[in-house]
């Protein structure tokens, strides 16, 4: 069975707690949005699409190699 488009809700919630802290005001105030991406490449593409839509004149910098 496939996950929904946004990924595993529980995994995303726990990842936010890990990154921002269990008692983060940003999480409590719902000021953070997150989704689960399929892979590193998928995450880069997802963010690039997001950035293009909301900040079309900005640039994205991705190192070479991106990961090894």
TrEMBL record:
PANTHER family: ASPARTATE AMINOTRANSFERASE (PTHR11879), ASPARTATE AMINOTRANSFERASE, MITOCHONDRIAL (PTHR11879:SF54). It comes from the Eukaryota. The lineage of its organism: Eukaryota, Viridiplantae, Streptophyta, Embryophyta, Tracheophyta. Homodimer. Residues 1-68 form the Aminotransferase class I/classII large domain. Its cofactor is pyridoxal 5'-phosphate. Keywords: Aminotransferase, Pyridoxal phosphate, Transferase. This is Aminotransferase class I/classII large domain-containing protein. GO terms for molecular function: L-aspartate:2-oxoglutarate aminotransferase activity; pyridoxal phosphate binding. It comes from Nymphaea colorata (pocket water lily). InterPro entries: Aminotransferase_I/II_large, Asp_trans, PyrdxlP-dep_Trfase, PyrdxlP-dep_Trfase_major. Signal peptide: none annotated. GO terms for cellular component: mitochondrion. It catalyses: L-aspartate + 2-oxoglutarate = oxaloacetate + L-glutamate. Pfam families: Aminotran_1_2 (PF00155). The keyword Nucleus does not apply. GO terms for biological process: amino acid metabolic process.
């Amino acid at each position: 069975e496939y996950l929904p488009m946004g990924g595993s809700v529980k995994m995303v919630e726990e990842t936010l707690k890990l990154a921002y802290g269990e008692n983060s005001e940003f999480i409590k105030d719902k000021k953070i949005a997150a989704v689960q991406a399929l892979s590193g490449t998928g995450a880069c593409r997802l963010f690039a699409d997001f950035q293009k839509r909301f900040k079309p004149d900005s640039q994205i910098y991705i190192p070479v190699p991106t990961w090894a």
